[in-house]
Structure prediction request, 499 residues.
Amino acid sequence: MTPDLTPQFLELIRLAATDLPPDVEAALRQAVEQEEPGSAARGALETILKNVELSRANQTPICQDTGTPIFYVYHPEGWSTRKLRQQIEEAVVQATQKSYLRPNSVDSLSGKNSGNNLGGNYFPTIHFEEVEGDALTVDLMLKGGGCENVGAQYSLPYNTLKAGRDLEGVRRVVLDAVHQAQGQGCAPGILGVAIGGDRGSGYYASKEVLFRRLDDENENPELAHLEKRLTEEANQLGIGPMGFGGKTTVLGTKITALNRLPASYFVTVSYMCWAYRRRRMVWQDGNVSFE
Amino acid sequence: MRQITIPISDEVIRSLKVGDPVLLNGVMVTGRDAVHKWLVETFIYKTRPPQGDDLEVYEAIKPLLNGGGIYHCGPVVAGLDTKDYRFVAAGPTTSSREEPYQGDVMRHFNLKGVIGKGGMGAKTLQACQEVPGVYFHAIGGAASWIAQSVQRVLGVYKLDFGVPEAMWVIEVKDFPAVVTMDAHGQSQHAVIEERSRQVLEQLIGLGR
Prediction:
């Protein structure tokens, strides 16, 4: 019933690690043009683009920190998630052997690196969801530690920034998170923002929203407006690529809203580095496509 | 672009200024979180007795770090099974995590160059003035590009820390970086942090 898709999962990992998605590359190319000729900011973006081309041509990782592999698996009724997990784990091991992934899974108590990117139920991270129809869709994100470390969660009201429980409060704390991050999350970054939820679901959703394409528009007009405004204002901060100063601090902002408890109003920001490695695989009737 | 050869003399270090783009040449050693903690606890604060090959490794790295450079990097390395090591991807990791240790490591080993990304804080800047030393900012995420400047892997220490955390001794040619903290007390990171804080306060109407 559940076919063996290990080679396809390996290809998904290879693509994600070595081939930056076209929408991200286009945004970086646009950003270069905005920076002053001869500036450190422009130089950084030019190097970044040369690296993107080289990684694609040589099938080598765009960034050495190949991050936590985060899989979102949307499967038809009747598929075995146990078998899919085994296949994904096997593909992760093979990808590590082929140097598409760096061995990144470290035992938090002993400090020992497992060497093959496996370790417990959370490495790699795999979310399963059953969907209607007969297609299997697998989204993969590789999120490095540098940008993960500058993520932030605020509990509103947050008085230091005079941030209340409304979209103006959201705006204030998100800009603060960008300022706190400076260049350390490998700017220019992409902001995934979740309003509401609890501390766990907020972080989950703030990553999930990063699967949206950079050039799409939020269906909610209020959030669409806030996304644009936050991107513009974050760029006014002048942090610039790598924190060198410059016009490009973030490439885009994606916001989602979750229901919350009356007592809680969390704003969660996941910062994604410019090496925005996310890819999708769709399997249907024995045919596989990647995007 | 200015060529810098490792080991670096005090004279060259003092001639470098924030904003200078450089190409690094010579032998450097990778070292990040586990290495800094281990060096400081075992050999500088001595809160932990040397174990296993600790002393042997210490003697081996001393001449490499004297006047040399440490690179905050956890590389992707091919050839692990044959020990015919080759760097596949080797961009910088975030340096600020080494802020508690870096200044002491610089002083202890006479370390001249710290190479990483994101910049470091006041303690490291102070050490840059004393030793003297500079912080070289490499381009974060440009891992395949930077790996091309790694000519050879000369050896590895503390591989039991794991591939990303080990000390890889590498010979580099035309390794691209920008000086963002110099030996004269200047830090590009402090300037940008302050400037962007002022803009932030305007944008959210604080301080009025």
Chain B touches chain A through 52 residues (CB under 8 Å).
